[in-house]
Amino acid sequence: MFDDPNDVPLTVDFFLTPNFSLLPFTAAVEPLRSANRMAGKTLYHWRVFGEDGSPVAASNGVEVMTVGSIFDLKDSDVIIVASGIDAHHYRNDRVFGALRRLSRQGAAVGSVCTGAHVLARAGLLEDRRCTIHWENLGGFTEEFPEIDVTSDLFEIDRDRFTCSGGTAALDMMLHLIARQHGFKLANEVSEQFIHDRIREPHDHQRMELRARLGVSHPKLIAVIAEMEANLEEPLSQTALADKAGLSTRQLERLFRKYLSSTPTRYYLNLRLQRARQLLAQTSMSILSVALACGFVSASHFSKCYRECFGRTPRAERAVRHDAPTLVMQKLAG
């Protein structure tokens, strides 16, 4: 996979699940096209497959043509699964079997965005590191605790490669191009996309807290980092203040001044946002979600959740479960 410079043209196959995210798919295809242009010869071919050979609609409604069904794909050098926000709902044993067959035949198998969910269900991430979009990380680790998943931008582990989504697919493909044809070509492709640097695998997925919150007070940033790292077993306000070298009163003043909130309310909202992700992305029971987010009982969790989001956790799950079907009905109608 992307190892032999003499292996040209290398054919890269894409498999699109319904409602896939268009941006990471495009960010994975376009570097191949540009590499051909910059090299002045055909280094890469690519093909797009779906479940049945029909066009596949992305989550934004744009349809992408396919050349056939994945079940008709007899062999492949490289196959990349592109999924979207609903990948945790995707169940198709025939597709999982087809991916395993292609892997046994020697194909390198990768994914962009949430495609790691598909690879995991197909049993293709055993003894491999992988990554997934930060918003899906909690749900993925709960569902697949035995898989070595990281929060890195992308992971390349032998014949498996995964990326976190969005523009991270561009960086991953640039690394793979560099591996086969050198960094000079990869840099030329990067410049074509006004991409000022090729990010490294261990670069962070999310913006730094300073940029994300629009504040730069170092002790406030340190406290929020502690909160984000301790959602399942929340730290007391006293413990948070002590770790930052502040009094509880000083801590409260910082939160009021910069975030118009109290430390307790801000911490609670972080835990509830994590709960919302788990409700949408896993089949965990309401009680299990509550405990995973630092609540001592389902009733207390339900009360706080309803106050924050206007509906109970059970109602939230029902809405999220119905949403993919409603979206596809609207696109079809």
TrEMBL record:
GO molecular function: DNA-binding transcription factor activity; sequence-specific DNA binding
Domain of life: Bacteria
InterPro entries: Class_I_gatase-like, DJ-1/PfpI, Homeodomain-like_sf, HTH_AraC, HTH_AraC-typ_CS, INH-QAR
Domain HTH araC/xylS-type: 221-319
Official protein name in the record: GlxA family transcriptional regulator
Signal peptide positions on this chain: none
Entry keyword set: DNA-binding, Transcription, Transcription regulation
Species of the source: Nisaea acidiphila
Entries under Gene3D superfamilies matching the protein: 3.40.50.880, Homeodomain-like (1.10.10.60)
